[in-house]
Predict the 3D structure of the following.
Amino acid sequence: MMTAVSLEGKTILVTGVAGFIGSNLAERLLGTIPAVQVIGLDNVNDYYDVHLKYARLSELEQYERFEFIKADLSDKKAIDALFSRYQPEIVVNLAAQAGVRYSITHPDAYIQSNLVGFFNILEACRHHSVEHLVYASSSSVYGGNTKVPFSTSDKVDNPVSLYAATKKSNELMAHAYSKLYDIPSTGLRFFTVYGPAGRPDMAYFGFTNKLIKGETIKIFNYGNCKRDFTYIDDIVEGIVRVMQKAPDRSTGNDGLPVPPYAVYNIGNGHPENLLDFVTILQEELVRAGVLPEDYDFEAHKELVPMQPGDVPVTYADTSALAHDFGYRPGTSLREGLRRFAEWYAGFYHTSDKK
């Protein structure tokens, strides 16, 4: 069972608010929920182009009910001060050091942000009355699982990257805090999120940047990869629905709380072959005027082996999300990449269309 959580008139903390998902979620809340106040936290690090992060923030700062706090999740004093001052009733933790490959070369960043940072959020939720903690997990927790589609009932004890290990750790930490301190928490395993103003380290964005410069794009595992690409608006819709239903609090036979804890997949449920994805992307980049119609794509593709930390397939079983929230993501890859290409043309002024 679940408890209804009203968002109207609430103070909602969104961490990672300058990030791709965080900024889109904050804009959705501010634009559609009456009298909501959004406190956005971000350290605006330079993992990727900070101009993109500040562009997202400038969109949010048009709203009077938005307040931005520049601070690091791993700074316990800053997090405690934020909770004491604003008393958020709902917390959405999207701040994390992202990226599978970066975790191989910069492991310390993941420990600080994804473990210490999440611990600070849990501690703050413990000491302040929070109606619902929603936090980002990742499809990467499924690691080397070969059974598809991936279900939240599957064992996820074989991470193939430190990033994945930190996300699985977040789920375990949230479960313990839910059990010990009766904090309603819901983890969301996101599957390959993409769209306008997305992350430049993601394939569709990185490929576009390289193609514009005439560089070669590397297609891993010789193109034999499948990804469950999920459009940003579908992810945001899922988060907003989940925010409004918290796992029920109850007491077990041991006199302690039955953990008010849940985990869901949010994915499209339609894995796409990487080569098909690249074909659609190039067609939409030409259509948007980002690349010329006579662009020689074949000369700019290189098929290469699998990268460490990568997995061959991601594929979400979203039946639990559909059952509990009446929702399944449904934006097609072509529609999503079309919106990305049109945004890219406008943001970077690459279009030759008048």
